[in-house]
Amino acid sequence: QVINFIEGISKVMSKSPQDVLSQIKDEGIELIDLKFTDIHGKWQHLTLTSDMIEEDSFTEGLAFDGSSIRGWKAINASDMSMVPDASTAWIDPFYKHKTLSMICSIQEPRSGEPYDRCPRSLAQKALKYLESTGIADTAFFGPEPEFFLFDDVRYDSKEGSCFYSVDTIEAPWNTGRIEEGGNLGYKIQYKEGYFPVSPNDTAQDIRSEMLLLMGELGIPTEKHHHEVAGAGQHELGMKFDSLINSADNVMTYKYVVRNVAKKYGKTATFMPKPVFNDNGTGMHVHQSLWKSGQPLFFGEGAYANLSQTARWYIGGILKHAPSFLAFTNPTTNSYKRLVPGFEAPVNLVYSEGNRSAAVRIPLTGPSPKAKRLEFRSGDALANPYLAFSVMMLAGIDGIKNQIDPGDGVDVDLFELPADELAKIDTVPSSLNDSLNALKADKDYLLAGGVFTEDFIDNFIDIKYEEVQQLRQRPHPHEFFMYYDCLLYTSDAADDMQCVDLGGRRI
Buried (b) or exposed (e) across 88-114, using 16+ Cβ within 10 A? Predict the structure, then answer.
């Protein structure tokens, strides 16, 4: 099955510019939509009439103003070119007029070189670097993005007020709500959302439409289901693919999820932690390296049947995770999911089956071709081109420098005594800490010229602005804790309490 799938990838990738031009002519397509990804991982697009697309458009690109894209060009050097990838062409299902969509990489129009701040171009450089090392020639990634579906979302943040409100008919807090036609009581309780059937699971048809539509657009799909959080958390499953293809697939996945949700009068979010006291949303990423059509991560008889190459790759992942989390977990909200003591994988260890470990080795049976590792700490707000690239570069650094990850940890980390747990490194507790780690540990990203100092410095500056936005604003919950409470210190300095006027300890 793995071999058949890999052969299928090469067939899909064989779609040429001539094929696209023929499709435009044969089907009478009048509009072409060009999509590209900014630093934040958001799709931008430009729609052209079909007569603007010629064969040299697939090499020279089409001009646009890069100064209006966040974190890109200054206005005095704003000319850029978007170069469409013919293999990504599909008819956009959400437009009234028949429109052919293609995903683009960005290049400098004068030199024809890939633009250093284009995430997709950077990922292409990462693959060239992988080949240049001689370690491998192919990197496969299998992402698992999760998301929430809500019926209503409202939020605001001003000088004198700040609030958010999300709601879904499935939410456990709605058991007492007055609903049109009567409240039927079929709500999903906290942390009990994994695999419930209808009528508790209200989104079966929505997810089915999302999954089937993704398949029509060329994404190799597998399954869909409700996820653990009771308040409308879901996942659509897609097969692994090569690095660029997988990142393209994640962008299309998000596009389909959001637009199908809107069609049903719902809203979708990939925020890691939109709901307090329930599971957050991650993006677990399976990954493996291959060379000359052969897998490199299988080692029969070793722990979890891992090869030495795989162990070193894991060593690189665990060593550099604090810095690359700035890319795999790139928001302040990301770290509200990564809290010790909960299900989120914060422990920088690897394990054959322990889901609280940052790196899990899935049980794949005897097939060498299925052997892979899964990084579980990342989330779906990550830019997939950057997230997959940084993990691969960390793994390559581990292989080149033979970084030993130590022994696998198969005990229940939640049951470890405090003194034992204290010996295990954990992921950073905030975006600010990850950015500081990135400043201190970035040489592995600069290898082969994949990332540049300019890209990393620009990324840190952008993300630090987000950190500052949260630092300067009161949090609504701080009013519950501090607005009308009495602070006092007992004789014991470590027994400080905050007590409200009713005498309750907070």
Answer: bbeebeeeeeebbbbbbbbbbbeeeeb
Among 144, 201, 248, 379, the active-site one is: 144
Q: Catalytic one among 241, 374, 379, 397?
A: 374
Q: Is the preceding peptide bond at 199 cis, omega within 30 degrees of 0?
A: yes
Return the number of other C-beta atoms located less than 10 Å from residue 358's C-beta: 27
Angle at 48 between CA 43 and CA 53, to 5 degrees: 105
Active site annotation includes 478: no
* Amino acid present at 321: A
- Biggest alpha carbon distance in the chain? 84
Q: 317-331 pLDDT, tens per residue?
A: 999 999 999 999 999
Average pLDDT value for residue range 434-446: 98
Distances (CA, A) of 16 to 11, 87, 138, 443: 11, 7, 21, 37
User: Can you give the pTM of this predicted structure?
Assistant: 0.92
Residue 457 CB neighbours (<10 A): 12
| 26 in catalytic set | no
Q: Please state, in angstroms and rounded to a whole number, the distance separating the CA atoms of residues 331 and 82.
A: 27
- Give the SS3 label for residue 153: strand
284 is catalytic: yes
Q: Is 144 a catalytic residue?
A: yes
Number of H helices, E strands in the chain: 13, 20
pLDDT per residue as tens digits for the range 218-253: 999 999 999 998 899 999 999 999 999 999 999 999
Beta strand extents in 66-137 (DSSP E only): 79-84, 90-91, 99-107
Please answer whether residues 63 and 52 qualify as being in contact, where contact means their C-beta atoms are separated by less than 8 angstroms: no
Query: Who contacts 422 (Cβ-Cβ below 8 Å, separation ≥6)?
Result: none
- In a 3-state reduction of DSSP, which class is residue 389? helix
Secondary structure of 63-86 as H, E, C letters: EEEHHHCCCCCCHHHCEEEEEECH
User: Is 30 one of the catalytic residues?
Assistant: no
Backbone phi, then psi, for 160, in 5-degree steps? -110, 5
Residue with tokens 């001689």: 134
65 catalytic? Reply is: yes
